[in-house]
Write a structure and sequence with these properties.
The structure holds two protein chains of two kinds. By secondary structure, chain A is α/β, with parallel strands linked by helices. Chain A is 35% helix and 20% strand. Chain A has two domains: 129 residues, no CATH class; 173 residues, Rossmann fold (3-Layer(aba) Sandwich), CATH 3.40.50.980. In chain A, strands 1, 12, 13, 14, 15 and 16 form a six-stranded mixed β-sheet that branches. In chain A, strand 9, helix 9 and strand 10 form a beta-alpha-beta unit. The N and C termini of chain A lie far apart (54 Å). Chain B is an alpha/beta fold. Chain B folds into two domains: 274 residues, Aldehyde Dehydrogenase, Chain A, domain 1, CATH 3.40.605; 180 residues, 3-Layer(aba) Sandwich (Aldehyde Dehydrogenase, Chain A, domain 2). Chain B contains 15 helices and 18 strands. In chain B, strand 9, helix 9 and strand 10 form a beta-alpha-beta unit. Chain B is globular and about 85 Å long. Chain B starts with a strand and ends in a 7-residue tail after the last helix. Classes of the chains: A alpha/beta, B alpha/beta.
Chain lengths: 361, 483
């Protein structure tokens, strides 16, 4: 199949209301064959694992690629120089950014809008939006900047605005925006990175700012926090959001997405923590033991693997570093499995990298 | 199973709060209850240990102390003793390591603290062990005595069983009071050892303590760190750096950071008869404590030109690791460790395309991984837990270039070579920062009297007190029998 045919069949698939196991499997295997053929790094990796289009019969058998691989190798079925857009991961300790090549944004955009409309807009009218993130022009390689720009373009009214500039959070214009929303009585949506919300809350608390956004208003945060006291922190976070903006916790939606995917997951609000995350019918998630690749028994913790059919050009199946648990209608996020410290006195990889970078030892 | 861990002097008063650590391995669970002292209790404890070290411990001769330690070690070497049995039973549950690995590891480790080894230990550092008992004449004139401090604080880390007693025994030998803080990963053995010491010599009861608190608990930490004369710390450089900031300038701080070790295999050891033995020894060093020790190998540099090539050697090692997996299975890993291992292995697998000479060997269960690299490579830490690289080199000296940038992180080299090669490369390795060379297969069992990270075990803990010649001569003038 050509790239255009692949893209068309995915767009067709996304337009359907739902998918059968069979339908999902068929398209996943098609994509696997396509990516295996056109991406030689991936082919070599699959061969090493002993998995080829001949032996893989189920979407769950497609070799998953760890997210770190986006930093190490070029994962693109199309010539990467012809990509319409490259989304990059934010910097890491090693200073190398993962790259996700999109030959065309058609599939990404459709995946985003169909899903966003259903899960955040709940199929309602356009809404006035405030964005707590830089614009797409400022951050052309940020998938989140593109995501939010798309949200504004497709679902935001014309008086939607951005509240992050190169100077950082524009708290004064944000307050003006919130006051105006309060006055008009029309629903308002505030979307952005979780840490920008924290920053906003800190500022509002400093000046004692409390708002009561009109009925139908909602909040979307994404990105989470890098902290171990996740549970407590999240509870506190949504309490503060709710208290400062007058939006019930059930209307505070958290989006879970990653640069390496083309589809996002949402919850149904955060009245209770941890919230259940789920995705649309063109993405499926397994909770696995990453060493064996086996699915762990339902209810046990494991690492999340996503098979995203909208990832037509890179690889469909991504091994994350997110720990999760499968539940009835989706999965619960339990934090990140990252940087295991050595149990003994042997040097751990992360420490070595620090030593190498700092050269201070 | 329940077990009270740690050790406190009987004369410490007050009600104790206990913190329970729960460990699980397969179907077995053990709860270790360990006292968590209040600030006041910590203060009282440091006073008790200091006072008793001054009046009791320092009244023992070094020979008496050696005998006490020897007797205690004998109890732990005796498989019918209840303490040994307890250690053999509980340590696998606590640390997750295989029973046999622990049994063999304990014996080989504890053997280095028997009387003859301790004597060697003392002579190694001091020349004349009697320096610890009394002023000894010096060849240049005058006299000197080795004085141990009143209180040595040990901050231990990690879960390699029994490792803490190294510094504890060093502290005892110099007649210091000792307070050790165990890690949550292995809070048992140090306390057991203290109990046995006191059983052998009840007078030591108030001279030492084994405690626990959560790492970074500043209140308790500062109590101990402010009152100790010497602090011996183990852990990552980050945690040591933070520990260092809490120690008063005048207190001696001996930090032992995490280290990286590796193997060097000369073509001389790779003929068809000896190569399998070489691979067996190398694999053994990997399997013992699943590479968690600072002396455990992260990779092996293997010389080309033997009748077994480095690539074949990698396969030999894979075979050995698979055999060991049957006999001594790897310990159960946490989800974080599993993820780290999977990520390491995936990364190597992904690079096969750009580096087609690379080979990644392993089973689908991924209980071990051997990666073969054709082109020489800088040393890079493995994700541990039985994952190693075999890196081909033409000449042994090439290794020096690959390790040079990391001099402060290097420790042990396990080596299989001819005697001439050994001495030739040792000098180069030493200059590059390596502090210990050992036979392949012995990497995880340092000899008694070794210089840990190139330092002295006892000398770093003591102060020498000199009576200069002039004082002696001057004093003669005032002797009542002066003519």
């Amino acid at each position: 199949m050509s790239q255009q045919e692949i893209m068309d069949s995915i767009c067709q698939f996304i337009k359907r209301d739902q998918s059968s196991e069979e339908g999902f499997n068929d398209l996943a295997l098609h994509l696997f064959a396509y990516q295996y053929k056109n991406n030689l790094s991936y082919q070599a990796y699959c061969l090493q694992k002993g998995r080829t289009p001949r032996t893989v019969k189920m979407w769950s058998q497609i070799p998953s690629v760890p997210i770190n691989a986006f930093k190490e190798v070029t994962l693109s079925s199309n010539n990467p120089n012809e990509a319409e857009r490259i989304f990059m991961t934010s910097g890491t300790t090693q200073g190398i950014q993962g790259k996700h090549y999109h030959p065309a944004l058609q599939v990404y955009d459709q995946s985003m809008t169909v899903n966003f409309n259903k899960r955040f807009m709940k199929n309602s009218e356009k809404i006035r939006m405030g964005i707590l993130f830089p614009t797409e022009e400022e951050m052309p390689n940020s998938s989140l900047a593109h995501y939010l720009a798309l949200a504004v373009k497709e679902f935001g009214t014309e008086d939607s605005s951005y509240f992050i500039s190169e100077r950082g959070l524009e708290i004064e214009s944000l307050i003006t925006g919130l006051e105006q929303a309060q006055r008009t009585g029309e629903p308002y949506a505030l979307l952005g990175a979780s840490y920008s919300f924290v920053h906003m809350l800190d500022e509002l608390e400093k000046i004692g700012g409390v708002f009561s956004l009109p009925k139908g208003s909602s909040i979307l945060d994404t990105g989470g926090f890098k902290n171990n006291s996740r549970h407590l922190e999240l509870d506190d976070f949504y309490d503060r959001l709710s208290a400062r903006l007058g939006v019930a916790r059930k209307d505070c939606i958290n989006m879970y997405g990653m640069t390496e995917l083309s589809t996002q997951f949402y919850d149904q609000g955060n009245a209770e923590i941890p919230s259940v995350k789920s995705g649309p019918h063109w993405i499926r998630t397994r909770v696995i033991n990453p060493l064996t690749g086996q699915t762990v028994p339902k209810g046990e913790q494991g690492v999340l693997v996503h098979c995203d059919l909208a990832n037509f050009n890179s690889v469909t199946t991504i091994l994350t570093e997110d720990i999760g648990v499968e539940v009835e209608s989706g999965f619960l996020l339990k934090g990140r499995a990252q940087g295991a410290e050595a149990k003994g006195c042997s040097l751990a990889l992360e420490e070595f990298i620090r030593a190498k970078k700092g050269n201070s030892l | 199973m329940k077990e009270v861990g740690g050790y406190l002097p009987p004369c410490l008063e007050g009600v104790l709060e206990y913190k329970t650590h729960i460990f699980q391995r397969n179907q077995d669970t053990v709860e270790i209850q360990i006292p968590l002292l209040t600030r006041d209790q910590m203060d009282a404890l440091t006073e008790i240990v200091k006072r008793n070290s001054r009046f009791i411990l320092k009244s023992f001769t070094i020979n008496e102390i050696v005998n006490i330690i020897d007797k205690s070690i004998a109890i732990f070497l005796d498989r019918s003793s209840k303490y040994r049995q307890k250690a053999e039973k509980l340590l696998p549950i606590i640390t997750g390591y295989d029973e046999e690995i622990i049994r063999l590891g304990l014996t080989s480790y504890l053997k280095s603290f028997r009387k003859p080894q301790l004597q060697r230990f003392l002579v190694e550092d001091l020349g004349n062990p009697l320096l610890l008992d009394d002023f000894q004449p010096r060849p240049k004139g005058g006299f000197s005595k080795a004085m141990g401090p009143e209180l040595v604080a040990h901050v231990w880390a990690g879960n390699v069983p029994a490792l803490p007693i190294w510094s504890l025994i060093s502290g005892l030998l110099i007649k210091a009071g000792n307070i050790g803080k165990v890690s949550s990963g292995e809070p048992l053995f140090a306390g057991l050892f203290a109990q046995v010491l006191v059983e052998i010599e009840p007078k030591l009861a108030d001279c030492l303590a084994i405690v626990w608190w959560k790492g970074g608990d500043e209140e308790r930490e500062s109590c101990l760190l402010n009152k100790a004369d010497v602090v011996v710390g183990y852990g990552s450089n980050t945690s040591l750096a933070s520990l260092g900031t809490k120690i008063p300038l005048t207190t001696r701080f001996l930090p032992f950071g995490h280290k990286i070790s590796f193997g060097i295999i000369s073509r001389a050891s790779l003929d068809s008869r000896k190569a399998w033995q070489t691979a067996h020894s190398a694999a053994l060093d990997v399997v013992r404590y699943d590479q968690q020790g600072c002396y455990s190998p992260h990779c092996f540099y293997v010389q080309r030109g033997g009748s077994v090539s480095p690539r074949e050697f990698a396969r030999y090692m894979a075979h050995e690791l698979e055999c060991f997996e049957k006999r001594y299975p790897r310990r159960g890993l946490s989800l974080e460790e599993i993820t780290a291992n999977a990520a390491w292995r995936h990364k190597e697998e992904l690079n096969i395309f750009s580096n087609s000479s690379k080979e990644v060997l392993g089973t689908t269960s991924n209980n071990w991984t051997v990666v073969y690299e054709e082109a020489g490579q800088e040393i890079n830490p493995s994700c541990l837990n039985r994952a190693v690289k075999v890196i081909a080199v033409d000449q042994l000296e090439q290794v020096i270039d690959y390790i040079k940038p990391y001099r402060s992180l290097l420790q042990t080299v396990g080596i299989a070579s001819t005697p001439k090669e050994l001495f030739d490369i040792s000098d180069l390795l030493g200059r590059a920062g390596v502090t210990r060379l050992t036979g392949l297969g012995s990497m995880t069992s340092p000899e008694a009297g070794w210089h840990h990270d190139g330092r002295f075990n006892l000398l770093d803990l003591i102060n020498m007190v000199d009576i200069e010649c002039s004082a002696e001569v001057y004093a003669e003038k005032f002797a009542p029998y002066v003519d």
